């Protein structure tokens, strides 16, 4: 009960942070208030919608539970009004985004496994839950998705999804390993930011 | 029986108009005949396909009822051949597009409600039914979706979807309130065009 | 048994070829190793995922059978390392791509028919299975989909899908007509390449 409530709060924090990233991109592209809220919604919930459609969980959580859409829209509207002040909290946003990455990957992978998706597919879906929102945000604002170009982001999610799948197959379940794995991903992501890790690019 | 037939005819008129908007965008981007028909199909039926996938109605109506795809393709091919003459009927197209907005929102919201989607999700899905096609059209032709940038379009759909959900929850069902709500949206949309209403854009 | 195995091998060859086309586009856009693999995965499996979601086959084959994702990723990584040498095998790639077109259309159309999709919808879904991956590849790399602009590609798929649907409705089933239809599409596609056929573009 209490752990379910904690997970929901953590999930909604992830939604708010991802929505803020989407809304910031929308403001930068001079979208109107509706456009900013829409891109925020898509950035926060696009990955989860894709995951839910893929595992046959309809309607997706984003449409079935009003708290998700409401959180995403409120966070987006806040960015719309407050964005000039957001630069001051840029470090906090990066920290929360890393936390969202860990959490969305962890819950996405577990949902896929529990829906009966085999291990490889579940790892891919866990990663897609985390990066799908950012992909959608970039496509809606006319950019080649940044997650495909540089940065050590999706690889952290994929590694974390594999870890969670292995733990689940070994019978290690419950809140503690979930939070540990999410925390580990968050830590690696922050380390990657700090050390400026990046994946290789092909020689021309 | 007769009302079902009327609704189908109205729905197909909406499909034809939205297909024409997609086909026009395709012609402007110098796509070939297939591309024009494809973008027309996506503009007319993309929103409904998204809605049907989200509520688990598979295969979506666009693939289950041949009259939808056929109408979309015929309208697109007509635009391909006749587009130089379309400027003359531009006012008629805007009027029909406003009617399509009202009708697609109304039927989309009701379908979501009847599929058991909660109120907030049903409003979002009703709006997505109306704007999803235009979004797809713009993404396929390499544009940032116009519905996100300016114009008083999605907000009309969202307001109409809320109205329909409230009516449905109050037990007001049937063809008359549906058509009234669709007509109201069409009217507000035309007023917004005439008065050049627009949503706010964030200060830089 | 043996024919099922043959079909799987043929399907995986199609996946590898389409993944290679996606990965090449990713390398050309200077994506990192993850981005190249992701676009390769999307190009190889995006069409099939779209088809499976549309007919309600969840989770889609791309997530349910690890051999599909593994093949796509291995082919993409191979292109990442070997791409400077790919120009030398360009003719082989075009041949294999034409074979993939025929095969993906054939299997996609049949899957839709067997899932109970009516004839017109099944033809559209068969075509989408073949062109959906390329569409996704182009959207992810910021291009207007090439299949919409020129080239005699989607029309071959659509014609083949109609042929397969007619054969199926006439009771002609089994591996031989399937392979014949796929071979016919491959041949027409190669002829279209050789003769530089193209669909008409609207007069400005």
TrEMBL record, chains A, B, C:
Coiled-coil residues are none
Q: Which UniProt keywords apply?
A: Cell membrane, Membrane, Transmembrane, Transmembrane helix
The chain positions of domain Glycine transporter read 9-83, 95-168
**A Gene Ontology term for the protein's cellular component:** plasma membrane
This one is known as: Glycine transporter domain-containing protein
PANTHER family, per database record: INNER MEMBRANE PROTEIN, UPF0126 INNER MEMBRANE PROTEIN YADS-RELATED
Q: Transmembrane residues, as ranges?
A: 6-26, 33-54, 66-82, 119-140, 152-170, 176-194
Going by the entry's taxonomy, the superkingdom of the source organism is recorded as Bacteria
Q: Which InterPro entries match?
A: Gly_transporter (IPR005115)
Family as reported in the entry's similarity comment: Belongs to the UPF0126 family.
Membrane topology, as annotated, equals: Multi-pass membrane protein
Q: Provide the leader sequence positions.
A: none
List, alphabetically, the Pfam families matched. Answer: Gly_transporter (PF03458)
């Amino acid at each position: 009960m209490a752990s379910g409530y904690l997970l929901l709060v953590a999930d909604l924090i992830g939604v708010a942070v991802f929505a803020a990233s989407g809304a910031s991109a929308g403001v930068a592209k001079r979208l109107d208030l509706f456009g900013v809220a829409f891109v925020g919604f898509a950035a926060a919930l696009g990955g989860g919608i894709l995951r839910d459609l893929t595992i046959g969980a309809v309607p997706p959580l984003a449409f079935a539970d009003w708290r998700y859409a409401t959180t995403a829209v409120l966070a987006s509207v806040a960015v719309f009004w407050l964005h000039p002040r957001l630069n001051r909290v840029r470090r906090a946003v990066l920290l929360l985004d890393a936390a969202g990455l860990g959490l969305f990957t962890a819950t996405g992978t577990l949902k896929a496994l529990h829906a009966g998706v085999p291990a490889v597919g579940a790892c891919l879906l866990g990663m897609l839950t985390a990066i799908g929102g950012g992909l959608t945000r970039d496509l809606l604002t006319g950019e080649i998705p940044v997650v495909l170009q540089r940065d050590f982001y999706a690889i952290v999610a994929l590694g974390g999804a594999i870890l969670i799948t292995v733990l689940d197959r070994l019978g290690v379940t419950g809140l503690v390993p979930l939070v540990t794995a999410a925390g580990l991903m968050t830590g690696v992501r922050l380390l990657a930011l700090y050390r400026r890790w990046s994946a290789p690019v092909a020689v021309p």
